[in-house]
Amino acid sequence: MSNILNIIGGGMAGSEAAWQAANSGIDVVIHEMRPKVETFAHRTGNLGEMVCSNSFRSDDHEQNAVGLLHWEMMQANGLIMHTAHKHRLPAGGALAVDRDPFAESVTKALKDHPRISVSYEEITELPSDGNWIIATGPLTSGSLAEAIKNETGAEALAFFDAIAPIVYADSIDMDTAWMQSRYDKGETEEERTAYLNCPMTKDQYEGFIDALLAADKTEFKEGETAKYFDGCLPIEVMAERGRETLRFGPMKPVGLTNANDPNNKPYAVVQLRRDNALGTLFNIVGFQTKMKYGAQKDAFKTIPGLENAEFARLGGIHRNTFINSPTLLDEQMRLHSRPNIRFAGQITGVEGYVESAAMGLLAGRMAVAEMTGQALDPVPHTTAMGALVTHITGGADAKTFQPMNVNFGLFPPIDGVKGGRKGRKDRYKAYTDRAKADWNAWLAQKSLDAA
Hints:
Layout: E1 4-8, H1 12-22, E2 27-31, E3 55-58, H2 65-75, H3 79-86, E4 88-89, E5 94-97, H4 99-112, E6 116-119, E7 131-134, H5 142-152, E8 157-163, E9 166-168, E10 178-179, H6 189-192, E11 195-200, H7 202-214, H8 235-240, E12 268-274, E13 281-284, H9 293-300, E14 311-313, E15 316-322, H10 325-328, E16 334-335, E17 338-343, H11 353-371, H12 384-395, H13 424-443
Binding site for FAD: 9-14
Protein name: Methylenetetrahydrofolate--tRNA-(uracil-5-)-methyltransferase TrmFO
Keywords: Cytoplasm, FAD, Flavoprotein, Methyltransferase, NAD, NADP, Transferase, tRNA processing
């Protein structure tokens, strides 16, 4: 069997898988179709490019499951997490990054590695031999998606993911907007003022909802069904679910005091997060949308402070595909019908940059163990990594399988820990303490640190 690991896709999962394998002494070829073959969402040919948000979400590794996943990846010398921390931007308790320097650093690290090479071409068929990881993500090319469907005998599942708009900072009216993180969260003043806030009165909010409901939207092609992932719902879809939905979601006014008018509590607040280190770009948090471009401008310019906003990027929508992993993959993330092929990342039915990179990390380590004839213990279910991989390889109900973020609901309960809302803080700390001990024990196995 070939001693080269081939990885299709140079996104979060593919980049992390390549890094893990190469640092374990395995030669790796990353097959990336960009920039020769473009996608709707990507702008460059960089590896690890961020196409939606610039946030890896919460960095709290004691009280948050995704923050725990950050911690586990850092302990495993994860390229994505280490690079994210190098290019961190103020974002309260979240880990947001300067997206272009981040991707450029990931690309440089991989290309500079003596065991990694990058081949820029589209793979259109499933390989019959060799060691492969398919980490093509939600924008898998049509030809490869068709090959996967033909091999598995099952229709690929699909949902629609929407991209939030980005605004030029100097076009925002700071006499109306102000800088503050919710509940002043953060250890530094920069973190505590990481978000830009635009306040709304009740009448302004109602007018904004009316604009969303009346706006022209992108039409779906015949035969397509909008199966949205709840973590990426377009704002107009949320508005259709009830006029107050946004006010209890991304536009909630809690934990904020209007620095320009401290005596008046906003009825709703639109938050923007810095999108680059220069602070010249801000993305509108939670404002994924499928509105047409003209309708977006009309609606967003009704937001106080954004009346004269200029947009570096408007929102968009694209089809995301993922496989029914519980029926198709074994516990090692291998395709049952072709065990020389592993799947990793968002195509497996995990949702989010962090989760995608995490599954790439595991797929890379699992591939190394198999290629070198080493026994690798199953990842403990008590860890964030283990909870996710268990979910996609059998823990989820295949009949209702949908994309999933990491969350404490995927973790085995701990006996003797108080349940309910009042016991949540102690319970989450118990989950993370147990996970850290079990993850470090798993990493300590004799293996995967040859280089």
